[in-house]
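Team,

Forwarding the record for the chain on the shared tracking sheet. I've put the sequence and predicted structure together so nobody has to dig through attachments.
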Amino acid sequence: WLKPVHCRDAPRLRVDRHRPLPSPSMSSVVVVGGGVAGLTAAVSALEAGATQVTLLEREAKLGGNSAKASYGINAVGPGDSAEAFAEDILASAGGPSDSADPALVRRLAEGSADAKAWLEGLGMKFEEVVQGAGSRAPRLHRAMGFMLVATLGKRLEHFVSEGRATVVKEARATGLLAGGAGVYGVRYIQGGSEAEARGAVVLSSGGFSVNPEMVSEGKATLPITQGPWTVGEGLRMAEAAGAKIVGSGDVQVHPTGFVDPKDRTARSSILASESLRQAGAVLLNS
């Protein structure tokens, strides 16, 4: 059984792997969230010259929603172009908006081939290249999310062994440390005790779909495929520190999710990947 599911609402994240850290005062980095975005940020910061990175993960293991993904990543390849990729993204989004900033879309498209090559340099193996939904050319490089998590996690472990990285699990971030110079760290709770981690901060703790107070009217009843940790804490912390949240009214709704015949009204669901339709499955509106 299949049903429409709300599968993504996470804010955007940009990581420039080629830009050196700005000053010695920013040589320590705190990353909140241990999914693919957080792991990428942590490893990228270390490769860019960070002397110490602390990764805070709310759960007992790394991966978050990324570990549940079953699709892959889009990257420009032969016969394709960054311009076409960017145009396809904006067309799928219905045009430029807070959720589809043309400058960010262009940055993503232009950096996609480098991002894929970087992952391959870490040992990531992609299965095949296929033409996914909303794409005019084959640019979807298939890979299971847990393999991306494992590849990035292995690289991070290398830095942990060198003493340059620390992974703190079952640590719930509760607020940002901020002052006249801006944000300089994170407060968190682990095992009932409060602690602080100081440095430049990257928030990569996912979206908010499990938090009904943050989901816009009319969407709160949609089934979700994200884990119970997706409550928007990172967004709340950023907002409390003065950040402006954009695009939070938009969510991605996937047309297919598996339905448990024994509990057809359950809000939590497992995503039925688009790869099913690529393999020949047909959607029926009945």
